[in-house]
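Many introductory courses stop at the sequence. We go one step further.
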Amino acid sequence: MFVEKPLAITEEELNNIIEVKALTNRLLMVGFNRRFAPVCVEIKKEFGNVEEPFVIHIRVNAGFIPKDHWTQIANIGAGRIIGEMCHFIDLMQFFTDSEPVKAYADCIQTSNEKIKTDDNIAAVIKFKNGSVGNLTYVANGDKSFPKEQIEIFCAGKTAVINNFQDGVFYSNNKSKSLKSHGKGHQQEVQAFLNALNEGNESPISFRSICLTTLTTFKIIDSLKTGLPHEIRIDDRNS
């Protein structure tokens, strides 16, 4: 089964999905395409089997969407934290090969009622292996500015993805240009079809998909409380 993101829009829905999945061996895949982008796959290979934690910074210049747009309605489109930021949490899991364990977030404050404050947010995600991901997601920028910038640092190496138009890998005081061939939509679908035809597991593990979804919920909880929130999946029968 292929499900477009997000997997669920509430923790109750997520818990129900986990319970149902435990009763069936059906393959389930969520449309987190960016980890399948050729430039991301190549960068991960360039880093190799590093044993140090990563620092990852992702900036998304998402553009303004009115509050009354369907994507912004909690029980329909779930909002942009759950519906869009999930892409980049999954990508962090892909690069770090680790699970998120804690999330902290804060957003702008304004008296302008047209602005949805949590569309302009900075989130910090801590991973089990010590890695840290910084996600800056904004809707108050200019749309002519590139949408997605990704910077990855680890073991004396650095990689940059420029809006999935090109990339650069830096190592040993040298740089290597990387071509980009899209955001991974075609490769994602092909990986899913291959798994179906060959009887393999999902290209993204069910546990990872659930952790990505749960992390978005914890980001929202952090906005409400002003505190970091732990991300725990093991007590949900995953």
